[in-house]
Amino acid sequence: MASDEQLDRAFAALGDPVRRALIARLSRGDATVNELAEPFDITKQAVSRHIQVLEAAGLITRSRDGQRRPCHLDAGALEQLTAWIDTYRLAVEQRHRRLDAVLEAIKKEET
C-alpha cells in the first residue's frame, strides 16, 4: 500500500484536468512531450511542468530512446490508488448489503 505522502502527491497531481488528460493519453501508449503537448492550447514548457508533477507523484516515468525521451504511465502506481479507493468502496458496499438485508427482513415481517 502506498504511503500517505505518496497518495497525497498522486491525488494532488490528478486534481488538475490537464494532468488527468495526460494520464488518459499515456494509457493508450508511451509519448514524448511534443506528442503530449499537441492537443493542448498551452506551451510545451507548461506541459513539461505538468509532466514533472506527474513524475514527482510517481504516476509516470521517462526513459531515453536515442534522441527521444518518451513518458510511460506507471500502472503499478495507478493500482496502488485503486487499492486505496477499493478499501473504502468495499466498506461502503458491505454497509449497503447489510442495510438491504435489514430492509428485506422488515419487508418479510410486514407481509
From TrEMBL:
Pfam families: HTH_20. GO terms for molecular function: DNA-binding transcription factor activity. Residues 1-93 form the HTH arsR-type domain. PANTHER family: SLL0088 PROTEIN, TRANSCRIPTIONAL REGULATORY PROTEIN. This is Helix-turn-helix protein. It comes from Kutzneria buriramensis.
